Amino acid sequence: MLELQQLRVDRPLGPRAQQPGKWGANVAPILQDLSIQFAEGEQVAVIGPSGAGKTTLLQVLACAVRPDSGTLTWQAVQPWRMPRRALQRWRGQLFLAPQTPPLPPRQRVVTAVLAGRLARWSLARSIASLFYPTELEAAQAALHRFDLADKLFDRVDHLSGGERQRVGLARALLSDARLWLVDEPLSALDPHRAQQAMASLCGEARARGVTLVCSLHQVEMALAHFPRVLGLREGRLVFDLPATAVTPALLSRLYAQHESELLDPPQAEAVERVEDAALFNPPEVPLQCR
Ligand SMILES: Nc1ncnc2c1ncn2[C@@H]1O[C@H](COP(=O)(O)OP(=O)(O)OP(=O)(O)O)[C@@H](O)[C@H]1O
Q1: Can you tell me which atom of ligand 1 is nearest the CA of 53?
Q2: What span, in angstroms and rounded, lies between the C-alpha atoms of 169 and 177?
Q3: Residue 5 three-state SS
Q4: Domain assignment present for 273
Q5: Within-domain flag for 122
């Protein structure tokens, strides 16, 4: 179980106060009053207009951003109560895929993907892998899930933005993490690739029993691929519902004054749910966000 209770994250409105970690009174909330539970192996999408706090929420779940108040608990442990080194080791159990994967430009794809193994490898093995990559079959299989098997030895800076984004996702498949936190994985992908990538990511998470929390701008993808959807707006939880219960009216309210990010919401009802990635036949994309 992964749980947030009464969580709040602030951002400074002025210069930082004297005390380390404190912003003084001159703050505004990025996230507030967030109480959410994620069951082991659950797949949850987070949607909401730009600036709603989706990325910050994932960073909090990844213990990359420390909450200003409230608690984060995972597997009965409150990680921020751990000593620093223990917290660093503990972070090895989760995988955070940022929207733009941090891939060194001259690196080979194989090395970039095998970086998913770093939490499991010793320092010596990690360094050796930079020069003599091992576990090529595992890397190739992960790339294959994202239709990139032929790119194994290409240089990262020779890939398109969408290919780089898929390499970042393939890296998750090499990790032993029990929690995948994926931030806007489809922003550089065309609709067909986006459908494929989403089906692969959700299919792999389901097969491994991994907990997956994914922020998305593409509402139709969230509704089609995820059993549960969180709607976030101005740092607050607007709804936490099964995807089948998310109505066009709720979406309109969530994106009020941000309608350009949610075109044609009534067609959301037409989105078919995808239960089996192998049988998936990409439907037309009725909504276009961003
Ligand atoms: N380190 C920071 N310092 C100050 N403000 C921040 C910081 N990080 C985020 N914010 C602010 O918090 C708000 C939420 O940002 P966040 O990136 O979490 O939203 P988002 O929903 O992921 O947005 P988008 O969909 O545009 O990526 C924004 O107003 C942003 O400017």
Answers
A1: 18
A2: 13
A3: strand
A4: no
A5: yes
Of 190, 259, 182, nearest in space to 222 by CA: 182
| 52 CA from centroid of ligand 1 (Å) | 7
pLDDT in tens, the chain (290 residues): 899 999 999 887 766 555 545 555 677 889 999 999 999 999 999 999 999 999 999 999 999 999 999 999 988 889 898 888 888 888 888 999 888 877 777 888 888 888 877 777 677 767 777 667 777 788 889 999 998 888 888 888 888 888 988 998 999 999 888 999 999 988 878 888 899 999 999 999 999 999 999 999 999 999 999 999 999 999 999 999 999 999 999 999 999 877 777 764 433 333 334 333 333 344 443 444 33
Q: In this structure, which amino acid lies at residue 176?
A: D
Predicted-complex ipTM score = 0.93
The ligand 1 atom at the shortest distance from the C-alpha of residue 56 is 18
158: Cβ contacts below 8 Å, ≥ 6 apart: none
How close is the Cα of 235 to the center of ligand 1, in Å? 9
Report d(CA 23, CA 63) in Å as an integer. Answer: 19
Ligand 1 pocket test target in 27, 34, 46, 54 with most atoms within 8 Å of CB: 54
What kind and span of H or E run contains 218? Answer: none
Question: Is 157 among the domain residues?
Answer: yes
Q: Computed over its alpha carbons, how large is the radius of gyration of the chain? A: 19
- The answer to whether residue 153 sits within a structural domain is yes
CA of 21 to the centre of ligand 1 (A): 18
> 239 — phi, psi (to 5°)?
-150, 160
CA of 114 to the centre of ligand 1 (A): 30
Among protein residues, the one whose CA lies closest to atom 17 of ligand 1: 55
How many structural domains does the chain have? 1
Cβ-proximal residues to 113 (8 Å cutoff; 6+ apart), any chain: 139, 142, 143, 167, 170, 171, 174
The parent domain of residue 126 ranges over 109-171
